[in-house]
## 1
Amino acid sequence: MDSGKKKRMQRIFRDDKRTFIVPMDHGTTIGPVRGLFVMQETISKLLDGGVDAVVLNRGIVKYTDIGRAGLIVHLSGSTKLGPDPHRKVQVCSVLQALKVGADAVSVHINVGSQHEGEMLMKLSRVVDDCDEYCVPLLAMMYPRGPKIQDEHALEVVAHVARLGAELGADVIKTNYTGTVETFREVVRSCHVPVIIAGGPKAETTEEVVQMAYDAMKAGGAGLSIGRNVFQHENPTLMAKALTAIVHQNASVKEALKILGENK
């Protein structure tokens, strides 16, 4: 990795080579959901919780202050109202992201979609631009499509993670596979850092905390959890609990204690 990318990566990853990112780009796909009505209010709560970086669309960046956190500008878009929400198109360029202050950019690829080829071509072009401008690329690689029976199965998650790395992404975000043993295989088979997605809103906080702990135990490089953080009744405490797991090797019990949920 060139020196320019390394310097920008240091704004996303701490010295321990780990990161806790909160994606907040959901407004394009599912609209202004709870937790994202007043963006600055939520961002301020997350900053108080110690998050390392946030993922935003470029239009929101212009009206928010993320303090000293890293800024990842999302380049992909689609809506749940369209005929194929899994068909992600590029809605922002790397250069446009840099103009609003990006430290890194992200793209969303649904492997297995009927439009997989189109998305992979765009990923390749973004990789070229990121190399040109020395910008780290976070590839959100998800197994989604007619042939995918289980989006969390080891074989498909490992495949999509490796695919993103093979095509030049600097960091991979993908699904957690459900166990420490299986996710360890995903991490081992991918030569760039792998972080987990948070997925849909979980039924309990403990479920999220346990998943985060297990992913880190398996060798994951961090978390990228959105709704289960910004829609929590106390986003600051949730962020503090997950930050403790990522950067302080806190146990599930210790993280729940931060949240006031003694077990």
## 2
Amino acid sequence: MVETNDKWIVERTGIRERHIADKSIATSEMAVAAAQEALASRGISSRDIECIILCSVTPDMQFPSTACIVQDRLGAAGAWGFDLAAACSGFVYGLTVAAQLVASGSHRNVLVIGADTMSRIIDYTDRSTCILFGDGAGAFLIEAGEDGEQGYVGHLHEIDGSGAPYLNMPAGGSRLPASQETVAKRLHYVKQEGQQVFKFAVRKMSELAEALLQKHGIAASDISLLIPHQANKRIITATAERLGLPCEKVVLNIDKYGNTTAATVPLATRDAIRSGRLKKGDLVLFAAVGAGYTAGVSLWRWSF
């Protein structure tokens, strides 16, 4: 449908394969599956969940929130929750919100889910976007630790609204409601100016990571693992180089999934656990940049 080939895609992005959800599957189905896997790994019932933070830019519908649908299908009676729309930074933002809820003492179990069905909003005649995105979901359970046990260390987040024109989906909101004209102009798909996004992502991820480490008096060499948003292999390697991190300390799995937006960080974490790269006691740094622009880093002592 577009003028490209496998060699060009792999060299420019690092992507070799992606997963596309069946037409019968919406974001909520993937989110529920991810949540069930996370709960099963901890042996915790869905009835013990107190809050659900659903990070996504592809909700099942405008309202109700997809968190409501997930809560019902999980059987998480008594849980409250909401959707968090921060694009590719969504999951990292969700982790911070969950950490604050637990740290305040008001919650003991908060479920954070990153799930996106990006294939539904991709224009497959647009070469700048159609090669990048895939569908997926992942989830973390943020729990209250024992006395003296540190999980969450700190975060730095920011937004820069001047970047909004460079990565967005123009139609479907209150400014450009759906109409024959918006459909004809293909405005209900992701639009991106790749070079602008690339430059911002490389600069901002490393800037925030360095600032967060400095704030807590931690050297980059003390980081056990960097788990970044999987948008582009060149962005990830450039960020790692700026931080002085060797490749063995960086999780890179974009080749298997492509950019799954809010799902990339939990999916990369799951792969790091399964491969034995992430272990209890490790100091792990999560980093992401997304549409908005949104950007954030979050530092944790892994406790599982």
## 3
Amino acid sequence: MKNKDQNWFLVKPKKIPGLEPDFCPPVLANQHFREEALRSGKSEPLAIAVEADNGLVSNYTTPVFAKGDPRFDSNLKYVERIVKFLLWQRGGWRVVIGGPKEIGQYIKEIYSPKGKRAFDAGLMAEVYSHPFTVETTSADKIPADRQNAKPLGRHLEGCRIGFDLGASDRKVAAVKDGQAVFSEEVVWDPKGHSDPKYHFDEIMAALKKAAGYLPRVDAIGGSAAGIYVNNSVRIASLFRGVPKDLFEKKIRGLFGDIQKAWNNIPFEVINDGEVTALAGSMSLGVNRILGIAMGSSLAAGYVDKEGNVVGWLDELAFAPVDYNPDAPVDEWSGDYGCGAMYFSQVAVNRLAVKAGIKLDEKRTLAERLKDVQKLANDGEKKAEKIFETIGVCFGYTVAHYADFYDLESILILGRVTSGKGGDILIKTAEETLKSEFPKLAKRIRLVVPDEASRRVGQAIAAASLPSASHGLPR
């Protein structure tokens, strides 16, 4: 397949997603590119280093076509997509390209304030409070890999509150010595409210209600969509309705204010994807697990072979999962083929149009998702085809993720996976993985928790985040 973006290496999948006939899986394209580069006999190594907070560095290496090869220009698009994935998987304010200077210069231009990836560069600068930079050097002078994996949560002693803030509902649980004694899910509309007081009051109301089921509160832990550093809100779609000046004054330190309201007891809030992975690791008793939540957007988190988190962003909503240059464009980032457009309620609503299903546009995306799910539960073939399409795309994407994560299990959560539609999605993904990547299918398990674990497991894991043993009664 050839196209204007020099993606000559794109490969049509053997299993075509019914409603996405032009889907181009990155895993197949990347494999084909590397094979052709090595087969040329003139390839050279290219190393990519991404630097985040406190000098932490993540490395990635790949062969590319050498200068003089007529396919040299195809390196540009290939490397750009890899850099894009690494930035949203691992996170960082500095990218170092160790290889041909032409490639480094292209990445520098496209991730400049006026480049196509200005959104990504700007977000990374905001997350890490540092100007975003791209540098070029030789492959042998790339910064050394430097990681800092650390334990996360698993503190179950005492009386705790766990909460989870999603785009369409908020959950809270009261947890005593690892057992949920109360849980509640409430519909809310955070993105539709510009007043920070709404957010403060809603979260406080949930915490106070949970506290009513405990003799005391020793610690509070929470998960929320977005990026959080030391309980500070860096980037979060939940608060997109809040004006920038109020965001800086009231939202940036929102959770610090809530902690003060609870007499500064141990309090920790992190990305909901990380808590998903932690919940999976705790409930299944396994590590090397990637947690995926298909909800209002796509959330992800990873626990390594030692049961630790490695400090990566894991914001896979913005990571490419389709190399088709005509793939749907994410309205926030302005980029095409990103995960949120394929594995979320946005995807279901988008594909419903392709399937010829008429939905009530006055209803929210979450409500329309339920309408589609009801059709699938009732055996409507058009609705079933939506979940089959998502399943095929996800099967190929699991293999793509396996190129960047050391995986044994993938825990799959979120409203999109509910009901018969969710069953079709998972089954189709497993079938796709087995038919196209049989070795990976034997190694990686796709796991869907039972309903009880879905409702409470995440909140228990969130409640386990802060260490509070020093403050417990003796």
